[in-house]
Amino acid sequence: MYTIGIDVGGTNLKAGVVNERLEIVAKKSIPLVWESQEKLAKDLADLAAAAAEAAGVAREEIGSIGIGVPGPVDAAQSIIRHTVNIPITNMPIGKMVGAYWPVPVRLGNDADCAALGEFARFGSTDIESLILVTLGTGIGTGIIMNGKIWSGHNSCGGEGGHMVIVHGGELCTCGRHGCWERYASAGALVRQTQRAMEAHPESGMWKLCASTKEVSGRTAFEAMRAGDAAAKEVVDAYIDYLADGLTNLINLLQPDVVCLGGGVSHEREEDLLLPLRQCVRERSIDRDLVDRHTDILTAKLGNDAGIIGAAVL
Ligand SMILES: [Zn+2]
Question: What is the pTM of this model?
Answer without folding.
Answer: 0.91
